[in-house]
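Mods, move this if it's the wrong board.
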Amino acid sequence: MSSVTGLDKRLQQILIRPEFLEMRGVAKEVPIFIQTYQPADEDQLRLVVKGVEQHLRKQGLRVKLVDLFELVLQLLEAKGYLEVVLQEEASWSKADLFDTLQNVADPTSALVPKLMQALGDDSQVSLITGSGRIYPFLRTHTILEALQPAMVRHPVVIFFPGEYSQDADGGSYLRLFGTSAASKIENPHYRATNLAYFDIKSS
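Not the wrong board. Structure tokens:
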């Protein structure tokens, strides 16, 4: 069975709840939620997320849907690198391409500010895709570590093609594609909630 089977209905139930939108129970933690799925379901996941966005808009919610890969392309274009990369990628070494992409889309100085601009100040909920598409030159945990609590003022759901876990000592780990080594999130302010365990309370 696909890892996204029934996910659309579950998200439609969760993301419209007042306790979710008002971030009840997150205290001083960053209101970021991780929704995992199997990498093989990437294309289906994008359709599900788009459908959820449209459903929430019909319910009157202000929703932002952001693709991290598209943001990286925008950064490359703004800095005059996009055409160069597209034309000369084949002749570059992997190391040179990796370094160029990392430098242009550095999480702290470039990508996170661009992301916060894309999310805006008037959104009620944001949906972020593209975590797998920016790997390996950008990793989700480095982006999350660059986010500060004051930046995120509404619930943000990041769709991640892999596994997300937390140990007893509070450490958080992201394992992309379910096979790569788990990356520990070192930011002490970061306490994302695994949306798979979010309780759908009866109304």
